[in-house]
Design brief:
Structural class: alpha+beta
Strand content: 15-25%
CATH topology: Nucleotidyltransferase, domain 5
Distance between the termini: 26 Å
Helix content: 40-55%
Strand order of the largest sheet: 11-6-1-2-3-12
Amino acid sequence: MDQSRTAKRKKRKGLKIFLITLLIIILGAPIGYGIYLMNTIKTAADNSFVEVEREKSPYREEEVKLGKDPVSILLVGVEDYLGDSGRSDALMLITLNPETKEIALLSIPRDTRTYIEVEGKKDKINHAYAFGGLKASIETVESLFEIPVDYYVETNIKGFQDVINELGGITVDIPFDFKQVGLDNKMIYFKEGKMDLNGREALAFVQMRKEDPRGDFGRQDRQQIALKAIADKALSVTSLSRADDVIKAAGAHTRTNIPLKELMGMRNFYNEIRNQEFTKLELKGEDTYIDRIYYYEPDQDSLEEVTAELKRILEINGDTNNSENTVEDTE
């Protein structure tokens, strides 16, 4: 892969698939300002658009279009505040079918032990990003579930915080009392019940796992709660100046291969499904230690069940035999 050529096309890493929801704001805006917002979105989208260096997934026989075909979107949260290339702190796979109106969310445990081709061995799935960047993360997820990853949206910590702050914060339902140290090394306290969070607090909310009795699975639930809260808040934005600020913050911290035209085509579908319950899939497994290193070892039956459900929503035929993940370890 030509890293220098790719670097020239990159903007700073970040989120937001929620640019989709902001398109709704334009429809109710005065014509002049609506045109301005559209230009702002187009600029943000152009700056954020980075193709994966391949024509399509090897698990696809034909190209697909968001809003027209069943597709998958991989949300990648990158932990890069230590100054290195970072690693994927959060991986969430969204599969959606515009015909059946089905949408499923699968949070992939960061310590999931699976084969990573760029390493040539099994390792934690979040290490794929550190060794081979976004492309390696996508290919590892595809190999694990034997399905295509059609689109991606990537964010880093600053992008997550900035968008929430520009939205004026989000409101979430705290499942239980807990505390978490923020990036500024100051303790943040959370109380059970409804709570308004700014960007700094929201980041701590989705990062905590040591005090959660469900560990990483509890953290995955909180990530999904925050994701929906951000989308709901974006849809409720009525101030045109705030919409402008959110769009600019999102665009400055976004990397995605979703074309603007397809984002716009998703508007009606998003409005139809945003109030319905999404299917939440869970990859079951067990904790294990190898050479004193912790891993989450997927249960083969669960892996096959999740894979079958993903393929059903994506309308992909084929068996669910993940041979790469059942071979005997050689490392």
